[in-house]
Amino acid sequence: MAEQQKQQTQTQEQNLKGKKVAILVADGFEQVELTEPRKALDAAGAQTSIVSPKKDKVRGWNFTDWGVELKVDVPLAQAKADEFDALLLPGGHAPGMRQYLGSAELQRRVGEFWALDRPVGAICHGVLVLARTVDPATGVSVLADRTTTCLPKYMERSAYVATAWKLGRYYRTYPAYVEDEVRAALADPATQFQRGPHTLSRRGTETDDTGTFVVEDGRYVSARWPGDAYAFARALLARLDRAERKSAGTA
């Protein structure tokens, strides 16, 4: 499996050079959900840019404490959707993420990119941004007709119950669970929402996808939590590679 993934990455590297990927974040993003997909994209030759409502730097959250600090490459106010070939939406539940998850301006910008029909990847709370993004042509969420996953209710509830004594409501960003909001955005949640296997004990690695879960629907890729980050990154790479091959007439 590792050799097959290596060969796939080498093939993608030939096609992704010069491709620009916007990584949309604010303070409190879940570190692994950004850093691992970014490493994979950079290694494959893509050019990644941190886009944020903030102007200077954003700070990641490494499970229960502050993690990396990253330079903002493009302030959201200056970002132009058609200058990017793909969009990555990491998640996160730290309090600072509310300026990301609840921003009407950010949702409008995401809607502009979504309308371009280019690859989009969202993981964990990042899916909530899409669920809240309304297509002006239809008046409903851009996810209304998509198959998706997100942070499942049982994971969010388990993390909250296990840590409430110490962290309070840290693992409850909003009163509603992420899964409930995402389901409400779908036309037929019974068939379109995929929760994935009940597992918290196994995280994926760069060479092992055991226990991970990723949902793919055309150019859209979604995943549940940091444990899916490696598999999620590979799926997004494949979507971007496929889009490039289609554009070049070699798909």
CATH architecture: 3-Layer(aba) Sandwich
Specify the helix fraction band. 25-40%
What is the subunit arrangement here?
single chain
CATH topology: Rossmann fold
Mean pLDDT: 88
Task: Characterize the biggest β-sheet.
Answer: 7 strands, mixed
| Rg value | 17 Å
Low-confidence stretches: none
Description:
- It is a single chain.
- The chain has 251 residues and is an alpha/beta fold.
- It has one domain: Rossmann fold (3-Layer(aba) Sandwich).
- It is built from nine helices and ten strands.
- It has helices spanning 2-16, 31-43, 98-101, 104-114, 126-132, 153-167, 178-185, 189-192, 229-248; strands at 20-24, 29-30, 47-52, 57-61, 66-71, 74-75, 86-89, 120-123, 214-217, 220-223.
- It has a seven-stranded mixed sheet, with helices on both faces. A three-stranded mixed sheet has the order 2-4-5.
- Helix 1 (2-16) crosses helix 9 (229-248), helix 2 runs parallel beside helix 9 and helix 5 (126-132) runs parallel beside helix 7 (178-185).
- The protein starts with a helix and ends with a helix.
